[in-house]
Specification:
Helices cover 71% and strands 2% of the residues. With 467 residues, it is an all-alpha fold. The protein has a two-stranded antiparallel ribbon. α19 packs antiparallel against α20. The radius of gyration is 23 Å and the shape is globular. Residues 77-82, 356-360 and 453-467 have low confidence and may be disordered.
């Protein structure tokens, strides 16, 4: 029997700064020393214990994020097979703990504002291509079930399981996740047997769980909450500014045009909003002004390396003949997407189409609209559009917490990234998206009506009839 004092100490630890730092430290050690199996087992045990003993899902969030970033770059066949066996043990164990958590705490599963949109996305993932080639569909069913599970199952677990709404704690979790991404990226550069110039020129950054573009996309969701932490409380301005600097440098090192372009637009919006509304303007402007001053000074000392990076991320090329858009191979992919779409315009060809020829679980068309159009046809695209409607509709409501502005900008940057690359076919990004949506839901006013737009129309019709 756990004493009351012991229980209180455990709760204080789970909601302290030390706990998420330790979780992400376990993740980094497991990733760096290729002990991810040990790390995953430790994370699974921690999650199981928390779910069995706690009445709140919040402390599981650092574990869920850390598990996304623990897989190192080890593409051997034996390694993949070993992890398949490990996942077959860990995943059911954690799911059983989740079921026990809901039963023990007598939680009745209810759906929130995001349920319909995510349900449409889930159906799009699962049903795409089922009427085109059933054999191909069955080949990719585990992948589509994984995407669908992340969307709807994770959403329901978090939406109903999170009880404590601590905005600072939540922002810190994402800030620490962003720092973890930075540490893994820097470790790759430091430990690689290739030179900095070679990595930049060949764009070989691959940390195992994701390529450089995936790192960039993830940072688009961690950076806004890092800035929010500085916006929220004066005592976090300094640490948030340092964390922002680390993440921003990491984002540049990814050389991801698809991430850097939305980041420029998003950062302008974030700093304009923060500059107007932050209460402690002086420390906020001094801290982040110092960050950009440091970046300018460092850039002048490493002009050659900055020029090399700029050459790789430039979108336009200026020549004597004028300005032209650099070809990054996207147009060929988009042409292929149109060809694949025409094979099954209504129901799509499914996520496993081109599975055998390209060696991936799903082919990446580097554009979210084309991805859903090809995989699910016109019906799939409608499901994706429904998801977008319900996703962003809840952000435009009065009396919502200011934190939702930062989450909104982060998600908009991520969606813009998806217009140039892949986001809805990456597990780690989907998990981060769902976590952000759930917390944004928690910040809504109690009287928020998800169906108000439809009811308002009906009410207007009744008034006209009465006239």
């Amino acid at each position: 029997m756990v004493s009351i004092t012991g229980e209180n100490k455990a709760k204080r630890f789970l909601y302290s700064d030390l706990y998420p730092i330790l979780i992400f430290a376990i993740c980094f050690i497991g990733w760096q020393f290729k002990l991810e199996n040990v790390g995953l087992v430790i994370l699974a045990i921690c999650a199981t214990l928390i779910l069995c003993l706690s009445d709140d899902f919040t402390p599981v969030l650092p574990i869920a994020l850390a598990a996304c970033f623990i897989i190192p770059n080890k593409p051997e066949v034996a390694y993949v097979e070993a992890n398949t066996v490990l996942y077959a043990i860990i995943v059911p164990l954690v799911l059983l703990a989740v079921v026990f958590f809901f039963i023990k705490n007598k939680i009745k599963v209810k759906h929130g504002p995001q349920f319909i949109g995510l349900a449409c996305l889930t159906a799009t993932y699962f049903l795409g291509g089922i009427f085109f080639d059933f054999n191909s569909w069955t080949q990719g069913v585990l992948t589509t079930l994984g995407f669908a599970g992340v969307c709807i199952v994770l959403y329901l677990m978090l939406s109903n399981g999170i009880k404590r709404i601590d905005k600072v704690y939540f922002a810190k979790i994402f800030m620490y996740a962003g720092i973890l991404l930075a540490f893994e990226t820097f470790a790759y550069f430091i430990c690689s047997d290739k030179s900095f110039e070679y990595i930049i020129q060949q764009k070989t950054l691959h940390v195992g769980w994701g390529l450089s573009n995936i790192i960039g996309a993830s940072l688009l969701m961690t950076i806004p909450l890092t800035i929010y932490l500085a916006y929220k409380d004066k005592k976090y301005v300094a640490i948030a500014a340092v964390a922002f600097l680390i993440q921003l440098v990491t984002l540049v090192f990814t050389l991801s045009r698809a991430a850097i372009i939305p980041a420029i637009l998003g950062l302008i919006a974030l700093f304009v909003y923060s500059g107007i509304n932050v209460k402690h303007k002086e420390p906020f402007f001094i801290a982040f002004g110092a960050v950009f001053a440091i970046l300018c000074v460092v850039a002048t000392f490493f002009v050659d390396k900055v020029a090399l990076i700029w050459e790789k991320i430039a979108v336009f090329e200026v020549t004597s003949e004028g300005v032209s858009i650099l070809d990054t191979g996207r147009w060929e992919i988009y042409e292929k997407a149109i060809q694949d779409f025409l094979l099954s315009p209504v129901y799509g060809v499914g996520a496993a189409f081109r599975f055998s020829s390209d060696g991936f679980n799903t082919y990446w068309y580097h554009n979210s609209f084309l991805q859903f159009l090809v995989h699910g046809g016109v019906i799939g695209l409608l499901g994706y559009l429904a998801h977008l409607f319900f996703k962003f509709k809840m952000f435009f409501v009065r009396k919502a917490d200011k934190m939702n502005v930062f989450i909104l900008i982060g998600l908009l940057m991520w969606e813009l990234f998806g217009m140039m690359d892949c986001n809805y076919t990456v597990y780690s990004e989907l998990i981060m998206m769902v976590v952000l949506l759930v917390f944004a839901e928690k910040n809504l006013p109690d009287n928020y009506d998800n169906y108000a737009i439809f009811r308002r129309k009906k009410q207007k019709i009744r008034i006209e009839e009465n006239k």
